[in-house]
Amino acid sequence: MLKTFKKGGVHPPENKLSAGNPIEVLPLPASVFIPVAQHIGAPATPVVQRGDQVKTGQIIAKSSSFVSTNIHSSVSGKVKKVDFQADSSGYPKQGILIDVEGDEWVEDIDRTEELKKEFDLEGAEIIKKIQEAGIVGLGGATFPTHVKLVPPKGMKAEVLLINGVECEPYLTSDHRLMLEKADEILVGIQLLKKAMNVEKAVIGIENNKADAIQLLSQKSKEYEGIDIAVLKVKYPQGGEKQLIKAVTGREVPSGGLPIAVGAVVSNVGTAFAVYEAIQKNKPLFERVVTITGKGVAKPSNFRVRMGTPTSALVEATGGLPEDTGKIISGGPMMGRAIASLDVPVTKGTSGILLMKKEESKREEVIACIRCSRCVSACPMGLEPYLLMTLAEKQIFDRSEDNKIMDCIECGSCSYTCPSSRPLLDYIRFGKGKVGEIIRSRKK
Amino acid sequence: MSNLYTVSPSPHIYSDDTTRKIMYRVVYAMIPALLWSVFVLGVDALRVTLIAIVACLAFEYIIQKYLMKVKPSITDGSALITGILLAFNVPSGIPWWIIVIGALAAIGIGKLSFGGLGGNIFNPALVGRVFLLISFPVQMTSWPATRQSATDALTTATPLGIIKEGLVNGTPIAQISKDLPSATDMLLGNIGGSLGEISALFLIVGGLYMLIRKVITWHIPVSVIVSVAAIAAIFWLVDPQNYINPLYHILSGGLMLGAIFMATDMVTSPMTPKGQIIYGVGIGVITISIRLFGAYPEGISFAILIMNAFTPLINTYIKPKRFGGN
Ligand code: SF4
Ligand code: SF4
Questions:
Q1: Which residues carry this modification: FMN phosphoryl threonine (chain B) (predicted)?
Q2: Which end of chain B has the lower number of beta carbons within 10 A, N or C?
Q3: What is the assigned CATH class of domain A123-280?
């Protein structure tokens, strides 16, 4: 029997339209807008000014605290201004607008394709380099990687889990990366293991990616202490807690971090970025982005420089389909709908999904028939119908008692509700309020 | 770019199962038993069903439109289900106006007085049935003979009725058994009873369909049937002189109808599998207690209504197992 997490979960149509298309390099845009906050934590502080000449890979905004990261220029050219522009959240965010001129990289970046397996670094040195390279979780969470690698006092990591699940429908960037950069990812994993001082790493992959499973199973034999766990396709298996449960059988306690059960989770894209940062001296300024959708002429996977406008990706796949009704940054279950094609690609952009008008319609909301589908679908063992009602009636103490803060916002409940009830919308509202109450209590 | 795109929070895709589709699956599941009742009881069964359906839909429309002043929701399939279930719960010879009163009780009291679909605590069809049973006890317990029955009698008794009456008169079980239909007749539905009660087999077929189409899970029907069978078996094993073979309890009367189609009503049954089993066992225990010790030969309607009342309590105390909880 294939492994998976036990509780809840859904299986939306996979629609991996771009799975067979190799990663292509997206041509450089005319200009990029690089936000200084592309991660969870404090925004970086800009260190360049209007008129400055920058090179590809040069730091343009510096990490401002421990939970923050550096931001590097993804292009060479001239800083036009330090400005505000809407990112995928829809709110204007500070960023650096650069006009692209040529493509001149910082000298010490190794631009060759040659695989470098060997390294001779201490854990602390690796972590320092990861921090300098501005690496964050590339699965979409964008939590600074160097923070994750240092466990809180009194806790010890035992196993590194690598997320190759890509459970969101449509997205294929991790899948392609595993096929095309398998060795690099495996070296990246060895680096992460060294940094964390653990012996064992397991890559979790769902069995809809048989080619990646086969390739990595074979290649991982050449590396010590890396196993592959083949998982049954189920959403949200890429959620940290679900992945840990599926692979190790351990349950992260309510309100706890993965490290509480000795696990640290990283994404395959992150492992690749770690390889590049350490073996090639290359900071994180580009990533693989899937651009896809039922109406898209050529669903593709591109290597994209951060700050590239979404429109550049859309043009490269044959232009915006006429009946596009919704543009999503990320996957259809957890991604964000964006209002404009100007939104830049950032470290957390795993894909762009163009949905047709008819796909993006929401059905009329009708009464809850108490069918309990949302309860069976919830991977956290919550009662979404109840949490929605409590949020609607603003009964926040009972929301808290019913574990609203455990919700991982996976959307399985809203996905499955036959009455089209906006469960997660209300739960988010309730979470926000309960979060405020909890914080005010601590003061 | 002047194009306007929809911006809404995630998720952005939805399963294509809708409440209406689920309701219609329940309707399809009832069709085999309905056809069989028409075959066995004749065109009267069809008459009763049509009257019940039309009356339920009409009351739903009228009350919603003119009293509650909301958009009528008669196409969602739920009033249709109530109509068929109400018909399943009455004898085929019942006068039309009694059905109409039953429909008013079911839709008006049982459903819309609680705010409509999803708000009701009790199964509407059962509210209708019990209302009629109390108001019109004679008409509600005169079951026309089936077309295949061997005698020329115009009416017949249900198997449970025969047992109850025999035991009340002090007749030993061995004697009563002679008057009872065979187990095969009961399974097929060649027995006296309300429309939907007469064929265990076709009710099971409908139940399997709902199971496969994921309208229901096994927890409620199985826990009801198993608990009835287990308790009936204990009494039978201890004292076979005075208690009938448990097979009769399972195959006769409304047990299958109740366990498969009425106890499983989503709106009025618990949310978690564990809660559903508690609810199902509760129904089973109350049903068999009424059958063995109560005044009525049949008890499942009361049992379901009683457990419906406990559903909110069960939902409050029986929580799903939380991820990462102890
Ligand atoms: S899935 Fe929708 S209709 Fe079913 S119980 Fe949950 S909220 Fe109610
Ligand atoms: S309540 Fe939260 S965790 Fe549970 S299904 Fe809904 S979004 Fe996912």
A1: 158
A2: C
A3: alpha beta
